[in-house]
Structure formats: structure tokens, C-alpha cells
């Protein structure tokens, strides 16, 4: 039996492929919604809930896997560090599967990369025009500052927890786009046009995250693309 930390679509696809090969798998995901996306199968157990280091160690001890596979999101660096450390302390073989970037070699005068939220928000404070944030909900508390919130639209997963967080940050419901991606180029174009977007902020989430489908049409429309770059693991 193996333990897999995988809440993303590519992680789920990998798990289902392994199940087809006869592997017995316990999957750990952060949320109940993430767990609901897995089908019920005889050799699959799905456990939801965020875990700190000690909780991960208890979880792994309870299941005693022959190895652990880390299929977490490329921006979930702290989670990956805790998984790796727990495996090292418990002497369990650990493997990290990295999602390929979509933006290597793509250069454009209207595309800038930032590796911290503070310089990104400082840059935006000097601009005018509507901003679309497509970075997920986890970083919104760092960017929804007074100077930007009245110009911002956020595209987030439409769960009650996420929507409540957005409203708690002071976002008007009309500025919360509750949608599940990834999104087609055509839908992105429609959103950019209908909401008069001049700045689009994204992470480099790779092909499964629809990064190019967001970035390329934005650049075609003359929208400035601000990339929150991947953290160093």
C-alpha cells in the first residue's frame, strides 16, 4: 500500500492509473470537496483534512505505507516540506512529482514575474484599471489591501468556505467569480472583456491549471499579465 498526497486533477489521474494497475492506495487531500472528486473504489481510501508535521507523522504511522508519493500543488511548498520531513523521520521512501511549468521561454513586454506578494501589490498600487486575481483563495488575504480591493475581481473555487473568506476580506459579492477551472481560452476572453480587465494576476500552475489558456489571450488583448512565480522548494 502507498500513501499519496494528491488533491489536483493530475494527481487524481495518476492515482486512478495506479489503481488500474492493482495498487492499493490511501490518498490524503486538504478538503472534503477534494475528497469528493475521487470515485469509490475497492482499493482506494481517501482522507480529507489539512495536517501539520505531527499530524502527518501520526497519519503515516497509522497506515504504514511502503512509500509516499507527493503530488501536491507546485505552490504548496510548506505542505511538501512537512511530508518530506515526516517521511525522513519515519524512514519511509518519499517521492515528489513535479508539475511542469508552462511559462519557460515565454517572454512578452506586458508580462512580469514577482516572487513575493508585497512587490506585486506595490506595483499595482501605482496603476489604474480593473484587476483579475486568479491565484486561488490562499493568498488573497495578502493582496486584498485597501488601495486595490475596489478595483479587484477574484476568480475562486465556489465552495462556501472560500466564498465566506472572500466576503470576510471585504470583497463585494459582485467582485467574486465563483467558478471551477481549468477554463478555456474563450471563457477567459469573455471574462476579460466583460469585466474590463486591464491586469491579470496568475500563478504558473502548469498545463493542468490552464496557465497558457489564461496568459496568451490576456496578452492578445493587451492586458498586463503579472505572474506570481513558483517558490523555490
User: Order of SSEs, N→C?
Assistant: EHEHEHEHEEHEHHEHEHEHE
Strand neighbour order, sheet with most strands: 6-11-10-7-8-9
- Poorly predicted runs: none
For this structure, what is the CATH homologous superfamily of the largest domain? Nitrogenase molybdenum iron protein domain
- Fraction of residues in helix: 25-40%
Question: How many domains in all?
Answer: 2
Average pLDDT works out at 91
Indicate the CATH topology of the largest domain: Rossmann fold
User: How many runs of DSSP E, i.e. beta strands?
Assistant: 11
What proportion of the residues form beta strands (DSSP E)?
15-25%
CATH architecture of the largest domain: 3-Layer(aba) Sandwich
Instruction: Summarize the main sheet.
Output: 6 strands, parallel
Helix/sheet category: alpha/beta
Number of helices: 10
Distance between the termini: 27 Å
- Cα radius of gyration in angstroms: 19 Å
Write the topology of this structure.
Layout lengths: L1 E4 L3 H12 L4 E5 L2 H5 L7 E5 L4 H11 L3 E4 L6 H14 L3 E3 L14 E4 L2 H9 L4 E5 L5 H4 L2 H4 L2 E5 L3 H9 L7 E3 L6 H10 L2 E7 L7 H10 L3 E5 L5
Parallel strand pairs: 1-2, 1-4, 2-3, 4-5, 6-11, 7-8, 7-10, 8-9, 10-11
Structure, explained:
It is an enzyme of class 1 (oxidoreductase). GO terms for molecular function: precorrin-6A reductase activity. Its EC number is 1.3.1.54. With 233 residues, the chain is of the alpha/beta class. Helix 3 packs across helix 4 (77-90) and helix 9 (185-194) crosses helix 10. It starts with a strand and ends in a 5-residue tail after the last strand. Strand 2, helix 2 and strand 3 form a beta-alpha-beta unit. The protein has helices at residues 9-20, 32-36, 53-63, 77-90, 117-125, 140-143, 146-149, 160-168, 185-194, 211-220; strands spanning 2-5, 25-29, 44-48, 67-70, 94-96, 111-114, 130-134, 152-156, 176-178, 197-203, 224-228. A 6-stranded parallel sheet has the order 6-11-10-7-8-9, with helices on both faces. Strands 3-2-1-4-5 form a 5-stranded parallel sheet, sandwiched between helices. The radius of gyration is 19 Å and the shape is elongated. The protein has 2 domains: 2-96, Rossmann fold (3-Layer(aba) Sandwich), CATH 3.40.50; 111-228, Rossmann fold (3-Layer(aba) Sandwich). The longest helix is centred in the middle third of the chain and has 14 residues, at 77-90.
